[in-house]
Amino acid sequence: MPALVNYVVDDDFYSGGSFYTNSTDLGRLCSISSQVDVFYPPRKRARITAPFVVGETLFEQSKQASIDVLPDECLFEIFKRLPGGRERSSCACVSKHWLMLLISIRKGEYESSKAVKENTDSVSDEDDGYLTRCLEGKKATDMRLAAVAVGTTGHGGLGKLSIRGSSSSSGVTNFGLSAIARGCPSLKALSLWNVPRVGDEGLSEIAKECHLLEKLDLCQCPSVSNKGLIAIAENCPNLTSLSIESCPKIGNEGLQAIGKLCPKLQAVSVKDCLLVGDHGVSSLLSSTSSLLSKVKFQGLNITDFSLAVIGHYGKSVTNLMLSGLENVSEKGFWVMGNAQGLQKLVSLTITSCRGVTDVSLEAMGKGCANLKQMCLRRCCFISDDGLVAFAKSAGSLESLQLEECNRITQSGTIGVLSNCSLKSLTVVKCMGIKDISSEVPLSCCNSLKSLSVRNCPGFGTAGLAVVGRLCPQLQHVDLSGLCGITDAGLLPLLESCEAGLVKVNLSGCLNLTDEVVLALTRLHGGTLELLNLDGCRRITDASLMAIAESCVFLSDLDVSRSAVTDSGVAALSRAEQLNLQVLSFSGCSRVSNKSLPSLKKLGKTLLGLNLQHCNSISSRTFELLVETLWKCDILF
């Protein structure tokens, strides 16, 4: 070893002389902190004769006995004998050339040397994979990956790596991913988003070296094909989670290999991969049915056959998401429900699938005995009859969410509440929901604790009255975006809630006034924890005074774009029982610099304060708040 370190060559080692004419060029090569990442192929380094100063004397160095003049073969042997990760990291900081040499050495090659074997006990924790690294945008380069590969050794080992948005000409390539593979065999989770220059070669290197890989996430990787995915399947038997999105070269063959060779797979998501069809999905489901619990398929060219396979082989599936399946008909969903294989299914989400009709929806309700959460988005062929039939057949249903299902009316939602023990109902942008007066006796739904009706312009006073009669045990109410409701319509609902409201969201309800807030604080001030009045422009300081007087447990208050002033802020600050953690005055133009003392007092408990678009608050006031409320995240 000493002989190698002191190795010196004579002047004619390079017949052509140095490629670099001065020390500045060499410095550019060696600077690891350069703004531009440039790859220099391994070669023998030239000896540089450069002037330097000792004391006051300037002279030429005739000969340089330095490790810099060693050929790469010698450096390679030296680096292999470095005892630990700290020493390797130090060497990697010398130059890019040394960094390139270090990443060319596989982790196993260090362990095979005698010097490392003698230190096995001291570095045995290097492979545990404790560390997480995320490279985004311009920071995602091959050089940074090489530095990560060397730098994480000896510090817990790299366990999770995420690369996002590396689409530039200097972005990550197969070379960078290969460096990670050689230096980080402890890698367990890899996420690649928008990395067009990474292909099968890089992924194959990961598969070859990182046998502990458990999670793989590929998004917008146009150069990765079935070949790379097959390599993962053949070499990573511990794979438990696979997510593939917008990878146009991945198709059935890759999924078939995953299903056949990855018996521990528990979660799979395949989105917008046009080459994936029935053969890939059916092979994946039929081969991994024993452990596979989470499944998501979106934008695929699959037919009724795939849904029949899901219904038959999905015996362990607990969460299922199906979206944009244009080639699946009513028959496919009907067979999936009647196959009786989804007995463990707990959560089902279906979006933009024309095959979901009243008939198929009822079949799914009957076939999924333990279904607790159901979400239907943009399913335009579902009517009130199908929804009520589903509610009757799905006896375990606890949560129902309907978004942009425009054939559903208020009669359908009332029928659901009357026929099952729902705990949560959410209705969003369903244009068929319109006020109807109902004098028919209704059975109470005492189980419903959470009601959310958002952006349904037809829902108003009559609908609120029905809800008040049906659901006396409500604790969470979200009526955001309902411009038509008034004080007269909301007050009966507030009076009928017997359990005490905990979370109330009235954002965008333009016609509500202080009267509602006064009633809310009087009736539910002892239980209220969250109140959102964003955009309620008729809310004034009277509401803040009532909140300060009556609310004991309130921790989150939003009065953005309202008519509150400095007086209201002062009233809040005087309430000794208040323990606010999140407070928003965004867009309140009447809150000014005069509120500085009050905000400082409130800030003793605040974790978040929103003062955006408060035009009467100056930058100086904001700076003073930042200095004083150092624990609080302030937006301005």
From TrEMBL:
One of its GO terms (cellular component) is SCF ubiquitin ligase complex. SMART domains: FBOX, LRR_CC. Residues 70-111 form the F-box domain. InterPro entries: F-box-like_dom_sf, F-box_dom, FBXL15_LRR, Leu-rich_rpt_Cys-con_subtyp, LRR_dom_sf. One of its GO terms (biological process) is SCF-dependent proteasomal ubiquitin-dependent protein catabolic process. Pfam families: DUF7885, F-box-like. This is F-box domain-containing protein. It comes from Gossypium tomentosum.
